[in-house]
Amino acid sequence: MKAVVVHGARDVRVDERPRPEPGPGEVLLALEWGGICGSDIGYWKHGASGTATLAHPMVLGHEVAGRVAAVGTGVTGIAEGTPATVHPASPVGDTTLPGRLAGRTNLLPRVRYFGSAAFDPHTDGGFCEYRTVPAGQLRPLPEGVDTERGALAEPLAVAMHAVRRAPAVRGRSVLVNGAGPIGSLLVAALRHSGAAHVTAADLAPAALDIARAMGADETRDLSQGQELPGDIEVVFEASGAPGALGPVLRATARGGHLIQVGNLPGTPAPAVLGDLVTREITWSGSYRFVEEIDDALRAMRDGLDVTPVISHRFGLDEAARALAVAADPTAGCGKVMLRLGSSGGT
User: Fold this and answer.
1) Which CATH class is domain 156-285?
2) Rounded to an integer, what distance in angstroms lies between the CA atom of residue 300 and that of residue 101?
3) Full-model pTM
4) Mean per-residue pLDDT of the chain
5) At 160, phi and psi to the nearest 5?
6) Inter-CA distances, 112 with 123, 132, 155, 296, Å
7) Alpha carbon 114 to chain centroid distance?
8) Following DSSP, what letter does each residue of 274-288 receive, concatenated?
9) Which of 155, 116, 189 has the alpha carbon at shortest distance from 35?
């Protein structure tokens, strides 16, 4: 089978690998669609994503969906042909969370994730034609949700988890700074959660076009000197740019809440943070998700349309080009999708 394998910085290849067979408690997925994430770009550009550094070749991809091709022994209730996506996280060991973190499994100290080099051996991802998956990580797609949209359930879950980290947004005016794929999915999640007015801000006009298509009531083009609105009670920072923190904190109302969704650098970086104290802002981080992938699938079943976030589609053999486009800030990208199997339809 074909697999998109990163061998090092700027070295991604479509390699031939043996087709796997499902073991006990596993299913074999024939993958159809995958979405390129910032971590995939990091491994391709730098051979690393955050603190995880590539030591061996690894299959990329954790935003995937396909159809069950075979079922291993001991698996019940899952039929061949079932369309499904995957919860890409798998806890390592039997660590018990303290009571204050009950249920927050995304904060376990050791978690394997599809397409991650955090452990050695690495955890291969799903940018391939077939992959075995523990049955417990499988999430069947609801009626009416095709596999391309199913591959968007994982990043939508990230957005929904961020919304859950904030105080109730229903009826409120909300700001999203950074309108890349996660920021635009945040817009959709906020509208789904009942936000009264959503403003999206970015430096890229194409990203703002996508944010409007995803439901933003208002946009601010920071590249044209437009400023962030002020006195916003709930703000989501989705750019991950330390230089944005000063204006974002100033835009947050006194006593308001700032949810940090964009990954900030793991190395020292200058940032203006004075308003955090003087305005008594609550600044909360948001990391991956717990089980919000189920919420994401239900929302899509009930009519939430997230397809406007898709800007490009490439075949599996075009993976290197797809990564280059996704990494290019001038390309006007939303979510770049890979067609992993011949069955994937749009």
Assistant:
1) alpha beta
2) 29
3) 0.96
4) 96
5) -65, -35
6) 7, 15, 17, 21
7) 12
8) HHHHHTT-EEEE--S
9) 155
